[in-house]
Structure formats: structure tokens, C-alpha cells
Write a structure and sequence with these properties.
With 256 residues, this protein is of the alpha/beta class. Helices cover 49% and strands 18% of the residues.
Amino acid sequence: MTFSVQLELTATRKKSNIILALDFPFEKAEQRRQLLSTAQRVLGAAYPFLCAVKINHHLTLPLGLFDGVQSLVQKAHDLGLLAIMDCKVNDIGATNQVIAEYYYSAGFDALIANPFIGWEEGLKPIFDVAGRTQRGVILLVYMSHKGALEGYGQTVVDAETGEKTPQYITFAKKALQYKAGGAIVGATYPEKIREIHHILKEKVPIISPGIGAQGGEVEAAIKAGARYLIVGRAVAQAADPAAAAKAFRDSAKQAL
Ligand code: XMP
């Protein structure tokens, strides 16, 4: 079963399309191990309102992949959730292959990669490992931050057609062509979600970060075509993560 089908089934079963980014602020040395129990507590509280968790350098750097993060991936699975690694792989193929092997070995169901690196000796080795281990590759198509315009938003000459196209349109077409497990489009740009959804339709789901702390809104993102919403600080660092996750889940349900 492909990652996108697994995510769809999980979202249906959990009645939630919210992906929690387990992100916490920088901690000095003596506090770092506590990040594991903090992450476990937040996950344990918010999981009824989620379909997946997303882990980033916030946890892999201080805890280590096999010494701490792997146990969180296991906990997510035990709670019936999928686990996504937000590593934005962006290197040469030989390195990408090793990165993918490690993250998938730790149990991640999908990882995020950057299509700027191209296919041959770039993305292909990641998709090869994903295919062999039956995991997903999610591609960045338009990021959620302001500077996204400078890269994802630039106008490029399409290498195949010679046509002038926005970079993110070529990335959306590649997501389709490579059968990516998802396409990341910032919730902060609903008009881009709409345009990209027009290309991807229901074949590659749009996964949208930037809800809450970055100013993206649930209803606008969903109405534009986002299938899943990533929420980080607004849940992980809330006084009551379960209540915050439930509130996002409920507004997403209402908007669908
Ligand atoms: P917040 O706290 O802003 O956290 O809700 C968002 C999480 O998602 C990551 N992020 C992105 N990841 N493409 C990605 O792959 C993006 O465009 C993007 N924007 C935000 C961010 O690092 C954090 O973990």
C-alpha cells in the first residue's frame, strides 16, 4: 500500500487530517534529554485528534535518531498514527540514499525531499529506497515562509518544453510524474494551493504547513485544496496541546 493511501486510511479512521509537528524550542545541554518526555507527553495528549506526526531537527539533533526519535516513531505507530520525517533531503544521490535508509530504518513512513536537486543522482535514489521499503517521499512544491518566492516562486524555462513557468508548477508536475506521497504547499499561500491542486487533483495530496504560528488559516487552506494540515508550535507548545489539537481538527472537519 502506498504512503498516500495509508495516510488517507489513517485520516479516515482517526477522523482527522491534522499532522502534528513535534517542535520545541532550543534547550541547553542539561535540559535536552527532557525533550523526549516532553514530546511523549504532547503526543500522548494530542494523538486522538491527529492522523500523523512530523518530526524535524528540533528532536533529531538533541535526541539522536536511534537513541530517542525512534522511540517516538514507535509510540506514534502504537497510537495508530503515521510518522513523517521533515529532513528536506537536498544532497547528491549517494548521500540521499544513506539518509533515506537511516530514516526509514528508524521506522518513518515517509520523508520530505527537495525537488531542486533533480531526478538523476538526486531524487531517484530516495524513491528507489522508498519503493524497496514501501515508504513515501513527499516533495516540497511551495514552502510556507516569505522567502519561498525567491526559489519556489521564480520563473524558470522548463527544461523539457522550453516554456516559461513558475518553478512551483514544474515541481507540482514532477510530484505527479514521480508519484510522490504528497506535495508540500504552505498554508500561508492559499492561492498557490488552489493553482497546484488544479494540477495534482486527487492524485497527489497537498500537505500544508504554516497553520497557526505562521499565520496560515485552516478554512482557507482546506477550501483551496489542502488535504492535510501540519500544525506545530500552536499545538506542541500550547498550554493544553489536546485542546489545541482538537480545535484545529474540528475547524478542519467543518471546512471540509
Ligand atoms: P509551525 O510551528 O510553524 O511548524 O506550525 C511548522 C513545521 O513545519 C515545518 N515547515 C515546513 N516543512 N515545508 C516543509 O517541509 C514547508 O514549507 C514548511 N514550512 C514549515 C517547520 O520547519 C516546522 O517543523
